[in-house]
Q: What sequence folds into this?
């Protein structure tokens, strides 16, 4: 969705950006195997000692950009959008509150190390060859690649099947709603929901995959991956001075995204304030994740004029109907009544504005010769009830783009504030 504040695959939302420019990705393929491992000195005899980890160990990469892990807000929201994504939703399998707290502490420690380009625990080359290493090793020798790890909690952590699982039911934020059913939804339960989530973004796909893989391994016996999604080709930029990216339909996406340096817009539309409540969410945000399948074979047989009418922008420049430049203020009334930009624009939604960090995806075929491809939509906002819900309600009812897309996965999470220091951890204030 190319611009304003949308919940669909163009760029109609408000987004945030950091100050660091994107580094080029060094891989085009993602995988768990060893084909792309960069083990560096570990391949040579006697090199194990040089890779020992711990507080006095060298980073896994001696150079490369790293995004600070600690801060008032979690990284990966108002950070400049990276090239690659690995998103994972987890089901908590333990019933022991103390075990869950221990997991979150361990996750936080591992996340702090990985975002700095360091190995998890005692590293990929441990002291005891008879034991599995603490780190899986596929990121050895790679740069931090601006890795960010963003953590959230879903409604099921507070209550599931009528049970107050961890004594947290009374602490569920009012804004953490169960999303309503929207017209046209065809949601797959196996690709929806989740008690916890981690969004891993990086400029190197192997770095992002390594992060989720290690967190999943640490969680074994206490939480398990419910579903995950790989993404490429960011579909919304949080740096408006940079070139606007294009989505799988070939249109520019994210023209009107909030800038990550626009503190006033972030405070108004993205960050939860102290007066919003509850106190443990102050400085956090709310995340809606939607897997949006695009019927690209049908789209590819649609005339250019119809494509441009559907979006309300031209395909070459991204200019609104009747105008010349991408960032010219659109004349909504000059667009068709069901044009995507017109329906998604804040002026059509009482000012509703969300921060988008979506990615394109292709996941093989659907068994009928069609690509399983589309947009993995990620939207951060101060309150889901004032952001995603009203915008998506309008789009689902009227948007002409609906002929070419379908929402097939959905989840919503409360994203706590940032980890302040080494004594803090993901969700600490929730469990206080």
A:
């Amino acid at each position: 969705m190319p611009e304003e504040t949308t919940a669909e695959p163009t760029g109609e939302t408000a987004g945030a950006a950091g100050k660091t420019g994107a580094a080029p990705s060094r891989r085009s393929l993602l995988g768990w195997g060893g084909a792309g491992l960069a083990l560096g000195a570990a391949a040579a005899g006697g090199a194990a000692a040089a890779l020992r980890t711990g507080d006095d160990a060298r980073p896994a990469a001696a150079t490369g950009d790293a995004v600070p892990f600690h801060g008032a807000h979690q990284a990966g929201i108002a950070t400049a959008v990276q090239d690659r994504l690995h998103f994972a939703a987890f089901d908590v399998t333990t019933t022991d509150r103390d075990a869950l707290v221990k997991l979150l502490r361990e996750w936080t420690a591992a996340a702090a190390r990985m975002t700095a380009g360091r190995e998890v625990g005692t590293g990929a080359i441990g002291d005891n060859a008879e034991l599995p290493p603490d780190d899986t090793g596929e990121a050895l020798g790679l740069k931090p690649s601006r890795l960010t790890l963003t953590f959230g909690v879903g409604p099921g952590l507070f209550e599931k099947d009528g049970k107050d699982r961890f004594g947290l039911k009374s602490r569920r934020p009012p804004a953490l709603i169960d999303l309503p059913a929207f017209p046209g939804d065809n949601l797959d339960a196996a690709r929806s929901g989740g008690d916890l989530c981690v969004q891993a973004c990086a400029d190197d796909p192997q770095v992002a995959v390594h992060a989720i893989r290690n967190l999943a391994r640490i969680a074994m016996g206490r939480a398990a991956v419910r579903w995950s999604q790989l993404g490429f080709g960011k579909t919304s930029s949080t740096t408006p001075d940079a070139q606007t990216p294009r989505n799988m339909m070939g249109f520019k996406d994210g023209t009107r995204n909030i800038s990550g340096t626009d503190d006033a817009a972030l405070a108004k539309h993205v960050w939860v304030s102290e007066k919003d409540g509850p106190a443990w969410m102050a400085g956090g945000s709310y995340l809606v994740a939607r897997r949006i399948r695009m019927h690209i074979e049908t789209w590819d047989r649609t005339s250019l004029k119809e494509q441009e009418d559907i979006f309300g922008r031209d395909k070459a420049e991204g200019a609104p109907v009747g105008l010349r430049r991408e960032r010219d203020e659109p004349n909504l009334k000059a667009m068709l009544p069901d044009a995507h930009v017109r329906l998604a624009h804040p002026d059509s939604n009482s000012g509703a504005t969300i921060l988008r960090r979506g990615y394109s995806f292709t996941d093989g075929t659907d068994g009928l010769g069609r690509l399983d491809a589309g947009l993995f939509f990620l939207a951060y906002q101060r309150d889901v009830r004032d952001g995603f819900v009203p915008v998506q309600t309008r789009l689902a009812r009227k948007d002409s783009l609906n002929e070419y897309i379908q929402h097939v996965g959905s989840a919503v999470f409360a994203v706590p504030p940032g980890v302040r220091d080494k004594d803090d951890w993901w969700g600490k204030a929730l469990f206080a």
Q: What stands out?
A: The mean pLDDT is 87. The two ends are 40 Å apart (CA to CA).
